[in-house]
C-alpha cells in the first residue's frame, strides 16, 4: 500500500502561482509513473502532467508552458509548479502514482485549487 499526500492548494488570483506537493510513503524512484490530475465540478478527471521513471514528462495542452512537474527522489516528493493561473484551472488536484510489482494506481485525497479575483 502506498499513501500519497498532497499539499499546497488554495485560493489565488488570476495570473498568480501555486506549487503543489505530493509526498509518497514509498520511494518514488521505483514508480513507473507519477502525475497530477484534476477534476472540476461536473467534469471528468483529466491528466494535468506526468513524469515517467526515465524522466520524460507529459502535459495537457491547456497547461503546457504554464505548469511544470518535477520530483525530488530524496524526499519522495513530486511537485507541480503552476504559473499564470486562470479561472479555468480551478479544480481539485489529485496526485497519482503507479508502483511495482503490480503497477497498481494510487491516488491522493486531493487538494483544492481555486483561481478567482
Q: What can you tell me about this protein's structure?
A:
Helices cover about 0% and strands about 50% of the residues. The model has no long low-confidence stretch (mean pLDDT about 95). It has about 120 residues and is mainly β. Strands 2, 4, 5, 6, 9, 10 and 11 form a seven-stranded mixed beta sheet that branches. It has no helices and eleven strands. The radius of gyration is 13 Å and the shape is globular.
Relevant terms:
117 residues, mainly beta, 4-stranded antiparallel β-sheet, 11 strands, 52% strand, globular
Task: Itemize the secondary structure elements and their pairings.
Layout: E1 4-7, E2 10-12, E3 18-24, E4 33-39, E5 46-52, E6 57-59, E7 67-72, E8 77-82, E9 91-99, E10 104-107, E11 111-115
Parallel strand pairs: 2-11
Antiparallel strand pairs: 1-3, 3-8, 4-5, 4-9, 5-6, 7-8, 9-10, 9-11
